[in-house]
Amino acid sequence: MIKQIKRYVQTALIMEYAANFNSSLSNHFENLSGTESPRLMHLAKKYTNVKEWNQKQTEAALKDLQNALLNLEDTVDVANTFPELVLVLLSMPGRTSHAKKCVALGKLLDIHPDAFQYSLKYFDKNPAPWADYVSHTEGIPKKKRKETSVSDIEVAETCLRFLRASANHFKTLWKWSEFAKIFLKHKDDRVKRLACHCMAVVTGMDESQLRQMVSLCCKFPPQEHDCDLLLPSPPPVKIPENKTRCLEIPFIDKVCPNVVSVAGITLPVLDPSQKSSGSLILVDSTQSNLRRAALGVASGRAVCLTGPVGCGKTATVEHIAQITGRPEPPGLLKVQLGDETDAKMLLGAYCCTDVPGEFIWQPGVLTKAVSGGHWLLLEDIDSATSDVIAVLASLLETGTINVPGYRDNLVAAPGFQLFFTYRLMSGASGSYKQRSNACELLEKHWTQVNMEPMSRKELEHVVQVKFPVLKTVAGRMVDLYLRFSAGEHEGSGSHTAQGRLTSTRDLMKWCTRAVKGFDVSSPESALKILQDAIDIFCCNINNPETRIALAKSVSSNLGIVQTKAEFFLSSYKPQPIKVAGKSCVVGRASLPVKERTVYELCWPARSKLVVACGGLSESLGLTGPEVAETA
Question: Which of 116, 124, 292, 412 could form a disulfide with 449 if both were Cys (CB 3.0 to 4.6 A apart)?
Fold first, then answer.
């Protein structure tokens, strides 16, 4: 039943996207008619009048657009007209020469954010732009020359563009001695001048040394030693911010499985075989949050998700990781920051082994993510210590980290992405950010995403879709949750000052427990929902009187007499442990049994909570003097 509802929702979304796609794609092609390129005008005439776009027609159109994008004369025009499809067109398989694709990528570096991130991964598996370009160089016989469709000056310009985009990465990635042999001895002074500027970046020359090198290699007046005139930068592509204007492909997985559309923003997929549909129900606020977070990922900067507790900061990052082929570590690594989290934990340290006197290097989670090109989520950055902030600030500013005793200037590998979560505090006038002098060092380096909490109607819709059996009681359950929620939802906040902060996770936990054996016509099911609600919302209150008052309030909201709540909280004791077959039953909870060993537990009520959490694979923290005895 759940799979059928999810399939229905996905089909409805695909039909909506297809309707928008039919009109939007034709309008985009119509915009090509204003260009001066005969090739693009032909494409505009060919596809403007298409009303129904099926998969075959879409694949043909994308193939023609890919050829036009890699045609160096039309690269910028195609990127300006189809900014949402640039990553798709670059990721599609094609037969274009390596040098030609490198030059096209160089032209896109300054105008589209996806080009740089794609280039990092492309050159991780492919050689430098001049690798297969040896024509028009001195000392090479004509029979051994390879015919290429790009000129020497275009290759030299491309190399300089990549160095300007990320000098630390490309000057260590490519073998620049080969470049110097080919281009510093070129017949064209313009090519030699570009080569001089490239070598100046690689070797770290200052301005005077660069001018001296250009004057020795080229015959230019001093005022023409600069290369800016040879590298004009067109204005950046404007990507539409409004979702309705965004061009989405409903069957993008079949056209190009190496990319995925996240709320209209195209992101690369790490491993198509690990890609899934995600875990979130795409209501309006979730779609908006996903789009803003995906824009931050596409920009290549660190992303800080800011919002009150329970608004979905962590779930948003996990959802994007799942649909981009990173369902589990090391694709996505997570760390909960706190006062005891120091830089040594993130960077790594030498640890002792079983052999006396022997130590091995154990890298920290940040070192693993930087060196492996993984995604890293650091939760509650506002709780980070000053030494952690200093390491992160250096990483975001330079793209490298220094790991004492291991390696200096460790450059972030392609694909590395850093996420932060920043919790907003609740006040009389609304949510506010708790100021931290240390975090101010990071704010200028990250892209902030303000998370929008779900409304009551959206929460009810999510419960009904994820748990169809609870459809009849979803409204009451959401209303009760909103009384305890600290997530700044619409109509929330009656009991937020009591106990720990209650978030949307608690609502999902409650529904997950309640759905087991639920029968809308059974009184036992109603009492089970009440027991689960008391366990989740009331048992964390220290004051007994306050705990009982809240339990009575919960019972009244669910339409159950208050005496039942007082009984379950104060007098109820679960049945003794029973081992029947391969299951261990304690009250209403059941666990699979691997070994037939039974221990006497002194507090039945406490053992009930332990087994209930374990049976649903929930995290559990035990505190108090009798922890060892209970565990």
Answer: 292
Structure tokens at 167: 């000098």
Check for a shared fold between 257-450 and 456-572: no
- Structure tokens of 318? 């996990």
Give residue limits of the domains in the chain: 2-230, 257-450, 456-572, 576-631
The tokens of 608 are what?
A: 């009930």
SS3 398: helix
Neighbours of 255 (CB within 10 A): 16
CB within 8 Å of 149: residues ≥ 6 apart: 97, 99, 100
- Quick check: bond before 330 cis, omega within 30? yes
Q: Fold for domain 257-450?
A: Rossmann fold (3.40.50)
CATH of 456-572, one of 1.10.287, 3.30.1360, 1.20.920, 1.10.10: 1.20.920
Q: Phi and psi for 414 in degrees, rounded to 5? A: -55, 135
Least confident span in 206-210, 389-393, 591-595: 591-595
Nearest in space to 559 (alpha carbons), one of 490, 617, 472, 484: 472
Per-residue pLDDT of 278-321, as tens digits, reads 889 999 999 999 999 999 998 889 999 999 888 889 999 999 99
pLDDT tens-digit series, residues 44-74: 888 888 777 777 888 888 899 999 999 999 9
C-alpha to C-alpha distance for 440 and 392, rounded to whole angstroms: 12
β-pair type (417-427, 375-379): parallel
